[in-house]
Amino acid sequence: MSVNDLMRSRTLKWLNTGGNNGDVVLLSRIRLARNLRQIPFPNRADYNALAQVELQLDKTIPQIVEGLGQPFDRLDMEHISALQRQVLIEKQLISSNLVKNPQHRIAYISDDRRITIMANEEDHIRIQCTLAGFDLDHAWRLASDIDDCIENQVNLAFDEKMGYLTSCPTNLGTGMRASVVLHLPGLVYSRNMDSIVNLSPQLGLAVRSLFGTKENPSCIYRISNQLTLGLSEEELIENLKSTVNEIVAHERAARKALLYYMKDDVEDRIWRAYGTLRYARSLSEGELFGLLAKVRLGLDLKIIDEVSPECYGELLVGGRTSYLRNFAENENLSANEVDRLRAAHVRETLTRHRIGREE
Amino acid sequence: MSVNDLMRSRTLKWLNTGGNNGDVVLLSRIRLARNLRQIPFPNRADYNALAQVELQLDKTIPQIVEGLGQPFDRLDMEHISALQRQVLIEKQLISSNLVKNPQHRIAYISDDRRITIMANEEDHIRIQCTLAGFDLDHAWRLASDIDDCIENQVNLAFDEKMGYLTSCPTNLGTGMRASVVLHLPGLVYSRNMDSIVNLSPQLGLAVRSLFGTKENPSCIYRISNQLTLGLSEEELIENLKSTVNEIVAHERAARKALLYYMKDDVEDRIWRAYGTLRYARSLSEGELFGLLAKVRLGLDLKIIDEVSPECYGELLVGGRTSYLRNFAENENLSANEVDRLRAAHVRETLTRHRIGREE
User: Fold this and answer.
1) Which residues in chain A (317-336) have CB-CB distances under 8 A to chain B?
2) What is the pTM assigned to this prediction?
3) Half-sphere exposure of B191 (CA within 13 A, CB side)
4) Which residue, A254, A319, A350, B269, has most beta carbons within 10 Å?
């Protein structure tokens, strides 16, 4: 695939619905931080050292490609535009850390977009594997296989006592961050999210709201392990999984309660959100996230039946500001112009995903 | 037509679009107040006297029917339900004065719904003729013909100096109230309506907002002559016409200015209003009026092209609370139930009036 395809594509396999527990869990991700022996961490490394990392990682890729049976795109951050970098960040294909200083920062992105390997992010090597739905075990196996493949070819900084050495001490040990992204409209609309956010540090987990604004909550949260040390990767993942299972159960109970106690009101709000997306001529990014949260809930509750659920993931990607500026091939598009383009994209997407007869 | 048809019909010929200056003038109305000689005005009359008025007016109807070539429905306010009376008021087929004490209060309504003759309203006889668009002359001729026909058959209270005697001195003289109902979204949205309302008494005119709320302006105003004395009917009508012509010109200029200076915003608001009407599951009457004002503007400006303009009049009739309670044959329908029924009616009406391909 060309860089252009990567930028313009509005589908991301791991934003598809239909994954395991896909009504609540949007995606699962494992990220591993690794560093090469005897080379300074990227924040202290000079260009020569960074180039050495780049070179060493380049050499490991063919074997990874062979093992996975799919090609990778190699994107040099220095050779793509600032806008293109932002699109990759929006799509969660790279981290924002990778582009602070683009020199010798490389992203290798697998053809199916599930795997990104980054060179000279906060650590020399970052491996991230993202899968649709609740599928941490599979994501972990995938990341671990790639890690093994790299470890066979280079010398990683590893200490028998400490585990993998990392630039930031919060990643020390396993170097692993496991996370799931959840859609929690039931808990948000019933005002139960605060207690979960407050409780999470005691469980060794971090809960962070993604996208949206206070007025327009996206209801999307990323939950990840805070600890990286003292437990095995499998134990850390099990810990996260058990908490996520509880949150999923709470979310489903909250949705049932909403339907039981305020069905009319919920239906009205969901359909109004859909009507606004279908007809608005201008939409801010924040408003889009707020409306999408309601529409997604409507799709999950089978209240909205005139559009296929796949539209949700496409709108989360194709409705973003950098995506639209890049699509229009005009990074200077004004905020108003972007908002109008966003509304046009949303209308086109919903029309394309229309199903069945209308009422 | 049966009473039931009269109640359930959602079309009123004089709410059709396409009348003279129909982009701004919804309808024109002439109302004449007449009283019978030597019978006390209704507010002072006993049942015998009221019955006498009823009897005398009954006798004049056949000749009116013959002259107009169409039948009249005779509705005795005592013999229809309170809810049915409210529906007639909502449809502007009778005045609210007619139903305060329903005994011996009769409405004769022409088959085409343009003419209502009321017995024992504030005056013994009230004749009202309503036509679509800006058509006061025609409405005046129609009312005048009916008046002549009645005058030939009964003795009207008339004083050479004062003119027609009426229960309330504000109607003395011609007994005529000429009015037009205007849709003025351009002047309302550009905040120019206050100056027109403030200026109107100096012109001998009354401007009154109909329906809607401050938050949800319907943008519908009734403008009528205040004077009834000292000028001929034709002079009073000419006076009203010339002011209305000016307001129409101002309204069109305001619409042009809105499109020139804030086209994107206007289009967005209009389409969002349409989207809400198309998809909401619950609508208050106030919100409906506010949304309809925007949709009607969108229809007039040819911004909304997927629904025929006839929907507007139907929604103004079929979206009303008493209409819906009567339609559901349940006068005890709760406010929430009415709001849900209203939304369902609106969706059905818009789907039925759908034209062309959607985007």
Assistant:
1) 336
2) 0.91
3) 0
4) A319
